[in-house]
């Protein structure tokens, strides 16, 4: 199954992709196991066929992306199934993409109450960010296992792709002394860009000053 076009390009790094396979199952580690079944549907309730779905484990803190444990492709009924251990029934999530047009995420799935998980894929949000102000940052959505950053040859702007919904995205600098920053996404456009007040800091999306860095802690 081919990765979403924009996700497979230079501007996206797949976190933990070395463990990704096309298998429908992931080993239960010798423990008693239980299936996690998901049904993928679009906004009309129709099955989504041929979507790539990742089984996720939560990141270590708010600034870490989730970890992809395994992946599968939805069948003709929009269904996928993973086999996982029963030792922790609440730490798993699902992320699904159909190309780069439809996407969706379900976090903190409790298998003790939800053996079959509906996962709705909706139109992916596409945002444009300026290269000059963000060229040394990695953009993280903790519920996703993808990390996004500008391409090496970024000239003017670049795109980030975000599943439909309301999210907190984090901009994590890869150099310098600037702290991580969060911006809230709940619509089809980014908050207004605010230039810094002659402080040498990068600009920001939304009111100035930006919110403080998040505290570390389990998601």
Folded structure, characterized:
The chain has 2 domains: 5-123, Carboxypeptidase-like, regulatory domain (Immunoglobulin-like, Sandwich); 125-205. 4% of the residues lie in helices and 41% in strands. The chain has helices spanning 5-8, 131-134, and strands at 12-14, 33-41, 52-57, 67-73, 79-85, 92-98, 102-109, 116-120, 122-123, 125-130, 137-140, 146-148, 157-162, 167-173, 181-185, 193-194, 204-205. Strand 6 (92-98) and strand 7 (102-109) form a beta hairpin. The two termini are 30 Å apart. Residues 1-33 have low confidence and may be disordered.
Mean pLDDT: 74
Can you count the helices? 2
Largest sheet, strands/sense/barrel: 5 strands, antiparallel
Q: Can you identify the CATH class of the largest domain? A: Mainly Beta
Global outline = elongated
Query: CATH superfamily of the largest domain, called what?
Result: Carboxypeptidase-like, regulatory domain
**Count of spatially separate domains:** 2
CATH topology of the largest domain: Immunoglobulin-like
Helix content: under 10%
Query: What is the total tally of β strands?
Result: 17
- Low-pLDDT runs of 5+ residues are 1-33
